[in-house]
Amino acid sequence: MSKDPTKLAIAAVERETGLPKDTLRMWERRYGFPQPERDEHDERLYPADQVEKLRLLKRLVDQGMRPGKLIEAPIETLGEMLQARQAQTIDCPNAASRCNSIVELLRLHRSEELRRTLQQTLLKQGLQAFVVETVAPLNTLIGNAWLRGEIQVPEEHLYTEQVQNLLRSAINAQGGGQRPRVLLTTFPDELHVLGLLMAEALLVSEGASCVSLGTQMPIANIDSAARAGDFDIVALSFSAAFPARQAVEGLTQLRAALPDGVALWAGGRAIAGRRDAIPGVSIITDIRETLSALEAWRTANAA
Question: Collapsing DSSP states into helix, strand and coil, what is residue 153?
Answer without folding.
Answer: helix
